[in-house]
Design the sequence.
């Protein structure tokens, strides 16, 4: 069967809170309610930011482990739960690495530029990337621009980054004015090379044009990440009721394009195959 498209939901992010939207999950129970809705709408993976008692983004190992164990207990058969090491200006590479080592998630997202900010960090970053590969933790390398993608290719070519067990997230709009993305932002990335080398990839897009950006990505062979971390507006330009509404809109859009939507089982088969490449 031709590889389908995976819908990843990013329900909360690191910065938004209830003042932005009352349905943005800030607690374990909030997240459970959200994911129950999103799995029914078509999401196969959840990109989960853990919040502390004050609602702040946290890489605390104990707290992340608590959220991960509880969430996997409820949803493991229906969704792949992905933790994030994103620093958001608060954490250093060694703290990000400690999070993954202390939680052993099935999947994790990390910004390549944060773990390898310059050449002095490359040896430690490389050791960490290979460690995750050996543990069969599925890594999503977050890339914000063409320079990040060039660094990725350089590290793969230099064998400082393993050529298996991962995929890419191409972020649109993060550093643009008002964080407003457009489908043409995809042109900044070498999609042709990514595709020709058989690399699995996904896109997320900040702002109200999220849906158009994700539609363009799907047409080019990419998976998609959707949710309140990046955008609160539905296709009608109105505030979405919840994350599940945004997931469902993307699922319907995918089906209208004649694309198969991966289940969690499909995704795990793809993940397993990625470690054999």
Sequence:
């Amino acid at each position: 069967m031709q590889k389908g498209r995976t819908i990843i939901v990013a329900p909360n992010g690191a910065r938004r809170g209830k003042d932005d939207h009352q349905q943005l999950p800030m607690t374990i129970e909030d997240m459970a309610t959200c994911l129950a809705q999103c799995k029914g709408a078509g999401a196969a993976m959840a990109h989960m930011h853990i919040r502390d008692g004050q609602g702040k983004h946290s890489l605390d190992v104990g707290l992340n482990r608590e959220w991960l164990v509880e969430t996997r207990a409820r949803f493991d058969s229906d969704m792949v739960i992905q933790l994030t090491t994103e620093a958001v200006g608060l954490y250093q590479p060694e703290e990000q690495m400690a999070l993954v080592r202390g939680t052993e998630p099935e999947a994790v997202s990390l910004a390549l530029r944060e773990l390898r900010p310059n050449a002095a960090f490359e040896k430690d970053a490389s050791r960490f990337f290979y460690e995750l590969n050996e543990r069969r933790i599925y890594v999503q390398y977050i890339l914000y621009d063409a320079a990040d993608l060039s660094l990725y290719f350089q590290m793969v070519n230099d064998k400082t980054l393993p050529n298996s067990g991962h995929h890419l997230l191409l972020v649109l709009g993060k550093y643009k004015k008002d964080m407003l993305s457009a489908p043409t932002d995809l042109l900044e990335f070498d999609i042709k090379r990514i595709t020709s080398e058989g690399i699995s990839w996904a896109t997320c897009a900040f702002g109200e044009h999220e849906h158009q950006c994700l539609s363009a990505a799907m047409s080019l062979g990419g998976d998609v990440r959707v949710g309140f971390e990046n955008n609160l507006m539905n296709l009608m330009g109105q505030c979405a009721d919840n994350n599940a509404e945004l997931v469902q809109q993307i699922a319907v859009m995918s089906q209208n394009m004649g694309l198969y939507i991966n289940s969690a089982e499909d995704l795990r088969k793809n993940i397993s195959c990625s470690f054999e490449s």
